[in-house]
Amino acid sequence: MNTKTDIAENICRLCEVVREKCPLVHCITNYVTVNDVANVILAVGASPIMADDINEAADIASIASALVLNMGTLNSRTVESMIAAGKAANAADIPVVFDPVGAGASGLRNSTAARIMENVKVSVLRGNLSEMSFMAGLEVSTKGVDSSDKDKNNDPEKVAVSAAEKFGCVAAITGAVDCISDGKRIVRIENGSAMLRLVTGTGCMTTGIIGGFAGAAEDMLTAACAGISAMGIAGEIAYERAGQSGTGSYRVAVIDALSRLDPAIISERIKIYER
Amino acid sequence: MNTKTDIAENICRLCEVVREKCPLVHCITNYVTVNDVANVILAVGASPIMADDINEAADIASIASALVLNMGTLNSRTVESMIAAGKAANAADIPVVFDPVGAGASGLRNSTAARIMENVKVSVLRGNLSEMSFMAGLEVSTKGVDSSDKDKNNDPEKVAVSAAEKFGCVAAITGAVDCISDGKRIVRIENGSAMLRLVTGTGCMTTGIIGGFAGAAEDMLTAACAGISAMGIAGEIAYERAGQSGTGSYRVAVIDALSRLDPAIISERIKIYER
Amino acid sequence: MNTKTDIAENICRLCEVVREKCPLVHCITNYVTVNDVANVILAVGASPIMADDINEAADIASIASALVLNMGTLNSRTVESMIAAGKAANAADIPVVFDPVGAGASGLRNSTAARIMENVKVSVLRGNLSEMSFMAGLEVSTKGVDSSDKDKNNDPEKVAVSAAEKFGCVAAITGAVDCISDGKRIVRIENGSAMLRLVTGTGCMTTGIIGGFAGAAEDMLTAACAGISAMGIAGEIAYERAGQSGTGSYRVAVIDALSRLDPAIISERIKIYER
Q1: Which end of chain C has less neighbouring CB within 10 Å, N or C?
Q2: Count H helices, E strands: chain A?
């Protein structure tokens, strides 16, 4: 039933296209992981710009090739900027990638996530199983910004399809197994390393990379799968090189691997299946 | 007079307990060192969440196992969040660890530190000798966020005891020699490396780690000593591995060492004395 | 025509003086690269303090030896702090180093850069060719925060001289070739590595280091050249050591090299020319 999909080939091609086009990726993201997000966007060949003031958010979005919204350290000032930038991105017809960090964990996060989805047409929604279950409208038990064990009863494939259908976007759930859907197609990616969870912001970085690929792609399912498989493969390579050294070296090795990623490496390592 | 205390044993045990419990640590901290703080909290086995908006600070604190407040890049918006989160933490009976960065260096920092101590019951107060001398009500000559040479005339043991008595908390002074007191007991830790001062945020990281241990501990003196000795030992190991390479590699090696810390390493290296 | 200038000797001396004096450098900078900026300031021997609240910006500036302003993640709150700190720095007669990140890219950035130059006497203005062309009043085509290819038609020497004359300060343009002028003298520095552009914030770091040197220097042209050549040389050394590993290791190696920089290394590697 599960067969390696031709998405793999499209990802390899996109990996080259993003380095040629060097799309500008406007990020309104959190201050915890923003530096790593900028560095991984550069590592895959795109160009990051972080700008969150309401007086320039729309201007910057309109010159960018993709917009990334991340509510990791949500605050009332930047929520308005996210919405203004999102509307400008929609008007300019550039993709919006949204990471609803901690959705389900506080009233503010829940209402903000809802406001963004109501006001902005999102192209790719990426989160962990708890966050995406919440977004899809299912019962959740979020503990902070990490996925809750209790939510393991939710089937990632069903959650991805539900969220995709609900919002008319590509929905991507990352975790032990990654599951991506546009509502019709369902893709699973089995790359990655458990060590990725021991570095803060690997989820945010994945979202940032998806933004980079989205800025150079025509198909958003491919962009989402490219970003997620790139991070998974980089996580594996980094584990082989630095897993024994500790989490500090591992994080450096993840960025190293992303910066050296090419079609040959992806083609050899990618474990992607569609059904 | 000085004998290795049984705190060493308790620290070894706590080092394992924190990895089993994986306590959620809510941090309202500065944007300079926040990424390193998150990564060291993960490295010792706890789970960080950074949330500083007034509309969710109390919500997040009430689901956490410990709260860390750090006034490194103080601003009027987050001060209110710190107090709201602190009160919620007190109500939920979870420990609050406070790092009064730069206390003594500006009127804003001085008044904010005072406001926090008046409104929030703090479990552990950690700072350098200048900051802690100021907090204890002694004469100080702070130069920025680093300890002033002039304050070397203050005896760290006396400062720690004074601050502990004044606030009814565990007071921890870190520097060439670390001194921790709950007002009755006085503990000295002699681990560490001079190179730690050449990396920004090693103080903030120590406070973050104390938060991780506090979230899994019953005794706050043990939690403070665990966090401080962990950072000291990691600083020594990092110096042996990367001291000659430079401060960039050294910082990575500190995080590596924290992520690989276990009771055997602590037991072998810890230099802790009580009198 | 081009001869190695005696600025090289002055830079070597300044490299030692900054480690002796350990000047306090007050930075109001962006949250993307702030941690790296703090770490490189420490690496060259100065002491960073980040403080951006309007209620302490002037207080902190007045105890510092240099002030660094960087508008990378501009927001309405910190713009007022930048101006207040700038005025306090002018009153205390300490140098102000300004990095007009993204000038030309949005109305907010353009008007803020103009406001700062009108209200604050800047000692060193550093940017890429697009930003500095905009500051000098020339036609530009900025794309985000990176220099635009279209602006390559502007001659860096002319832009540096124009900006220096317009503002009566040292103007420094960094890029493939660095060009620094105080309006009379023109200096070119040919150190560096193309890989520096693949790490976010190497421009901000250069500005931060200039702040460190400015806090210990008498002559601002020397301070600017010291900061720029230090980063260029560190970029070369890092490329030799970690260029093949990837951009994560490269970034660590840049900070390593800065922390180990000494007059012998500078003297051997510096490529600086005056005409």
Answers
A1: N
A2: 11, 10
